[in-house]
Amino acid sequence: MKTNLLLHIILSTFVLFFVNCKPAENTDSSKTGSQSAKYKPAKLPEAPSEYQKKKNPFEGNEQAIAKGKITFEKKCKKCHGEKGDGKGEKADVLGYKPIAFSEPGYLKTRSDGQLFFIIENGSPDTDMDAYGKGTSTNLDEEKIWEIISYFRKEFTK
Ligand code: HEC
Predict the structure, then answer these.
(1) Domain range list for the chain
(2) Average pLDDT over residues 17-24
């Protein structure tokens, strides 16, 4: 009886192990939410509450949007892609998938403060560097809001 139980436990462990190892089917890597096998799951640290309250002072401001576009194309496009689809020229060699902002509905799920926090501080241990003040790119608050204004205009569907 005891041996039977032990055998049962060993067998079910094996079965579970193989079930878990089976590559997930129906993973559509073209979607932002689902990660394709070549990328690690997104880290996206959550912004502290003082960031969540931040509001973009330039939302919808055409001049800010135009400036944000310039910064995006210089500093961000190579990973996030010109259309914000996460398919920039460098995207393929990265361990983490550059977020596809243009995925329908995606940006609506991300607050201004959350986007601001990650642009300023990066996502540690991923390819998303910090771009805020004191970094080599040294984007000040205004520049970060300009980029977010551009995202909201261009990549929100
Ligand atoms: C070297 C490639 C690379 C570059 C260049 C890059 N990013 Fe990213 N970015 C990533 C990756 C990878 C992630 C996902 C990180 C994770 O999984 O936590 C990311 C995540 C983000 C996020 C978080 C999105 C969310 O839903 O919270 C924002 C915002 C962002 N990037 C904006 C920018 C901006 C703005 C620039 C230019 C100033 C930029 N990125 C440049 C690779 C890059």
Answers:
(1) 45-154
(2) 48
Q: Could you tell me if 122 and 131 are in contact, meaning their C-beta atoms sit under 8 angstroms apart?
A: yes
User: Where is average pLDDT lowest: 28-37, 81-90, 91-100?
Assistant: 28-37
Query: Rounded to whole angstroms, how far apart are CA atoms 88 and 92?
Result: 8
Domain 45-154 has what CATH class? Answer: mainly alpha
42 lines ligand 1 (CB under 6 A): yes
Which residues have a Cβ under 8 Å from the Cβ of 101 and sit 6 or more positions away? 80, 84, 85, 86, 107, 151, 155
Q: What type of residue sits at position 55?
A: K
How far, in Å, CA of 100 to CA of 102, rounded?
5
Name, in order, each residue with C-beta under 8 angstroms of 49's C-beta and a sequence gap of 6 or more.
none
Q: Does residue 14 surpass a pLDDT of 60?
A: no
Task: Give the pLDDT of residue 38.
Answer: 82
Q: Which of 31, 54, 79, 154 to mutate to test the pocket of ligand 1 (most atoms within 8 A of CB)?
A: 79
- For residue 96, report the phi and psi dihedrals to the nearest 5 degrees: -115, 145
